[in-house]
Design goal:
Blueprint lengths: L6 H15 L8 H12 L4 H16 L16 H12 L4 H18 L3 H7 L19 E2 L7 E10 L3 H12 L4 E4 L14 H8 L38 H11 L6 H15 L2 E2 L7 H12 L5 E2 L1 E2 L26 H7 L3 E3 L2 E9 L2 E10 L6 E14 L6 H7 L11 E3 L4 E7 L14 E3 L7 E5 L4 H4 L7 H8 L5 E8 L5 E5 L5 E4 L7 H17 L4 E3 L8 E2 L5 H4 L42 E3 L14 H18 L2
Parallel strand pairs: 1-7, 2-3, 2-10, 3-7, 10-20
Antiparallel strand pairs: 4-6, 5-13, 8-9, 9-10, 11-16, 12-15, 12-18, 13-14, 14-15, 16-17, 18-19
Helix pairs in contact: 1-2, 1-4, 1-15, 2-5, 3-5, 7-12, 7-18, 10-18, 11-16
């Protein structure tokens, strides 16, 4: 598959971008924009690159039928082209709208990451000096692709280095076990951070940050592909799961050994390692302050979040690698601690297959691959007494399936939950500079009993622009007032269950359509956020609803409350895929047993969010780490 745009594709993309961004066709900004888009495409998977091309060509040639124009889009006059692209924007047909959303997201994020455009909208971040990280033996970290094949004998092979993989590797290495960690992405430290959001996305995220589900609506699921996994690119939020969750697991799935009392000690150990503390009010930023101002008028208490970022100075880019080393993601704690205890970490190495015979796994076969150039290197073969899959909920079931691991329950890849999230952006007359401070520093429990968690969020221009569901001059006018925006988000504890399947090319494909039970939760949450912002003095809000992109103060939150909302009208993201290797006491309905061991295989374990049988209702990283510590304790005691 080509990684570059053809000359014709470049012309199509440029003409589309000109209409979308309200730029003249000869704008000098279009050339660097096309260069950035082309560079992003290098990070797409083959199927994503193919989808991009097909969508682009569809947009081009369906223009021929637009009021019998008999012209492809790139040959239309600017006036006719604007009307044509607007028709795609305002269409009732959700498939057509989805095509445009995919294309415009790529355009918006790249345009608003151009340095001169960032300065124009008022985004000028400054970072404090970086603190030092933990020392570790660099010989235990393989950052570059070896020249040939590599063979390694270990007690434990851990596939994945995120919250679960890093913690289980750390614990078993500290216990004296010979541990090897396989990570598909590269290893990055503070010297690699601090660039614009799109540049960092290409470094740290899988598929250029555009992994998504298939269903209604398509949901963006950003995933980390780097040493430390998604902990490197998350907000740093550290919640414990509610005791009610563990009670439900015990009653429904027989997980009596996972009571809140049992998990308490594992949570406390994880929190000490991560140095968890409440976010300080002085660095939460004015976006959070303004939402709290409106929420208080509704009788809603806004509280500081617990975070793994002691001494955070509020750089505002938690989701693109902390440029000051304040956020204690895995490459700053668990991974160095594992390497200090003798573990070896291979990066840029993709696990392809777990080899087993009977009820025992014996080897893991992996391949060194450059994450960007896709250049294939030699093979890594690990002989191990125990294998731990910790690739995350979208990739662990695919690895098990690709390896032919028996699945008598037929639940592997099923039961996907996501905590789908939405947000409301509000426009004020006052100067806010919401990017100056912690992007997610506070929360509210006002709707938690309804399955809705309210949490702060604020993003750089490159990732704010795609969520403003306008185009042309209207979109430009809104973004030119970027420093007058405030944002707050919500996430839903979903009852919807999706599925992960293995595609033809071996990649993970996620299928997920919001059910009727969850749909009203989004309407309820968006309505409340809108009401709070109007109480705080907002002039208009952007609620993230395709059929109602803007709500004015005169319309009020009632415009959202009375809307006949469909799931395909929502614009959502999700950051917490869980459940696809469900844990339970009954092998007929679970993939792993209460010890995290895969049913039918004595020495294969799973230690990531895929084992959780239900949505948690809170950000899951602390529960994943606590679970990894618990599973590691059992492996050390009972298996090795």
């Amino acid at each position: 598959m080509r990684k570059r745009l053809s000359r014709y594709e470049r012309r199509i993309a440029a003409s589309f971008s000109a209409s979308l961004l309200s730029l003249p066709d000869d704008s000098p900004e279009l050339a660097p924009l096309m260069d950035r888009i082309e560079d992003l495409l290098k990070h797409f998977t083959k199927d994503m690159r193919l989808a991009w091309s097909l969508c682009l060509w569809a947009l081009e040639f369906l223009a021929i039928f637009y009021y019998a124009s008999f012209k492809p889009m790139s040959r239309m006059s600017p006036e006719l082209r604007l009307r044509y692209v607007s028709a795609w924007h305002n269409t009732w047909w959700s498939v057509k709208r989805t095509i445009k959303r995919f294309l415009e997201a790529v355009v918006f994020m790249n345009y608003y990451s151009l340095p001169e455009v960032e300065r124009r909208v008022g985004y000028t971040p400054r970072y404090s000096p970086a603190r030092g990280g933990r020392d570790f033996p660099t010989s235990n970290l393989v950052r570059d692709i070896p020249a040939g094949d590599v063979n390694f004998d270990a007690d434990v092979c851990v596939v994945g280095s995120g919250a679960g993989g890093a913690f289980i590797a750390m614990e078993l290495a500290k216990a004296g076990r010979k541990v090897v960690i396989i990570e598909e992405g590269g290893f990055f430290d503070v010297n690699d951070f601090g660039y614009d959001a799109v540049t960092m996305t290409k470094k740290l995220y899988r598929a250029g940050g555009l992994t998504n589900t298939f269903g209604w609506p398509p949901i963006l699921v950003p995933l980390g592909r780097c040493a430390g996994g998604t902990t490197v690119i998350n907000s740093g939020t550290c919640f414990r799961a509610s005791p009610k969750i563990f009670e439900w697991w015990a009653d429904r799935f027989g997980l009596t050994g996972w009571s809140n009392d049992v998990m308490l000690s594992f949570y406390e150990r994880a929190e000490r390692i991560l140095e968890v503390e409440p976010a300080r009010n002085e660095v939460q930023g004015r976006s959070a302050e303004i939402f709290a101002r409106g929420a208080s008028k509704l009788g809603i208490e806004v509280k500081p979040l617990l975070r793994n970022a002691p001494g955070c100075c509020g750089s505002g880019v938690c989701c693109w690698g902390c440029p000051t080393n304040a956020k204690k993601s895995m490459q700053l704690n668990a991974l160095p601690l594992a390497l200090q205890s003798g573990a070896v970490l291979y990066t840029k190495c993709r696990a392809e297959r777990i080899v087993f015979e009977g009820s025992k796994v014996s080897e893991v076969h992996a391949r060194f691959i450059d994450p960007v150039a896709r250049r294939r290197g030699g093979k890594l073969t690990v002989k191990a007494k125990v294998v731990v899959a910790a690739c995350g909920s979208l990739h662990t079931p695919v690895l098990l399936d690709r390896s032919g691991i028996p699945d008598s329950s037929r639940q592997c890849g099923r039961n996907l939950t996501l905590h789908p999230a939405s947000k409301v952006t509000a426009l004020f007359d006052e100067n806010i500079r919401g990017w100056y401070g912690i992007p997610q520093g506070c929360y509210a429990d006002a709707l938690v009993e309804e399955g809705i968690k309210l949490e702060g969020i604020f993003l750089p221009p490159a990732y704010t622009a795609p969520t403003i569901l306008l185009m042309g001059e209207e979109h430009r006018e809104a973004m030119m007032r970027y420093n007058n925006m405030a944002t707050f988000g919500l996430m839903v504890s979903d009852t919807t269950r999706g599925r992960v399947v293995r595609g033809i090319n071996g990649h993970s494909i996620s299928l997920y359509t919001i059910n009727r039970e969850d749909l009203p939760k989004y309407q309820r949450g968006i309505t409340l956020l809108t009401e709070a912002f109007f109480e705080a003095g907002a002039q208009k809000v952007f609620p993230g609803i395709c059929t109602l992109p803007v709500v004015t103060k005169e319309q009020g939150a009632a415009a959202i409350a009375k809307l006949r909302l469909r799931n395909k009208d929502l614009d959502l993201q999700a950051f917490h895929p869980l459940g696809t290797c469900r844990m339970g006491a009954d092998p007929r309905e679970a993939v792993v047993d209460p010890n995290g061991r895969v049913y039918g295989i004595d020495n294969l374990f799973v230690a990531d969010g895929s084992i959780f049988p239900t949505a948690l209702g809170v950000n899951p990283q602390m529960t994943i780490m606590a679970a990894a510590l618990k599973i590691a304790e059992g492996i050390h005691r009972d298996v090795l």
